[in-house]
Amino acid sequence: MQITTGGPLGSSRPGVGPVGRQLRTAVWRGGLPDALRALTQWRMGREAPGQLRRRLWERLVLLFTRRWRLFRMTSCYFIYWQDCTFFTRKEILRVHKKFRGLQPDVVPRTMTREDAVNVRVPREILEKLPELRENPFKTRICEVFSSDDKGNLSFEDFLDMLSILSEHAPRDIKVYYAFKIYDFDNDQFLGPSDLQQTLQLLTRSQLLPEEMSQVCEKVVDECDVDADGKLSYMEFEHVITRAPDFLSTFHIRI
Ligand SMILES: [Ca+2]
Ligand SMILES: [Ca+2]
Fold this sequence. Notes:
Structural class: mainly alpha
Mean pLDDT: 81
Number of helices: 13
Bound molecules: calcium ion
Organism: Frankliniella occidentalis
Keywords: Calcium, Integrin, Magnesium, Metal-binding, Repeat
InterPro entries: CIBP, EF-hand-dom_pair, EF_Hand_1_Ca_BS, EF_hand_dom
Largest sheet: 2 strands, antiparallel
GO molecular function, one term: calcium ion binding
Protein name: Calcium and integrin-binding family member 2
Strand order of the largest sheet: 1-2
Distance between the termini: 37 Å
Number of strands: 2
Order of helices and strands: HHHHEHHHEHHHHHH
Radius of gyration: 27 Å
């Protein structure tokens, strides 16, 4: 990046005026080498008052510090997170802002990989998120995505959850996680007790016990191909692919 040195500085405040703007652009767009080159060019081109020069250096140090903090978060982990989720860089930043908003005093503004894995927001706070608040499965969703199995989510857990519930995630993955969410006892099958709990949440406990048993029996009757009294993942997948509104009910916007 070239930087011009001619013309008035325009302002005694560093970071303002033509030179300030060029230096700032150099710092943010070109990184450290370009900014140093730009500053050297500028210093060789004209003699600035000592005070302005000192303030400019201070400003540059501040910009580099900010840039470095951002770099730590953006460069290494963003590539990794972009690979592992269905989010763009911009969406990941939005998710981070949302996550930090839940507990600003606990979640750091700049995430290291250790923070992203180890700093957890409690389930009770996560359940108050507008995206989850009205969802009858909110507790179960948090449990399924939490790496501590208690429903408390780290930033990476949270990112996974929102990514899979987002409109960008393919149907297959949504079906896989829907199965996990409905499989309350984690035995890899949807048995009568899983179906009852699912139904209870879906109907917000408005069915009588006999009605619930009848509905569950009907579901097993219709979907249980190998007649073992429970639904395997294949059987569940077969049923859910025939439900055209499944995708619309299994996504949230960030
Ligand atoms: Ca089960
Ligand atoms: Ca079966």
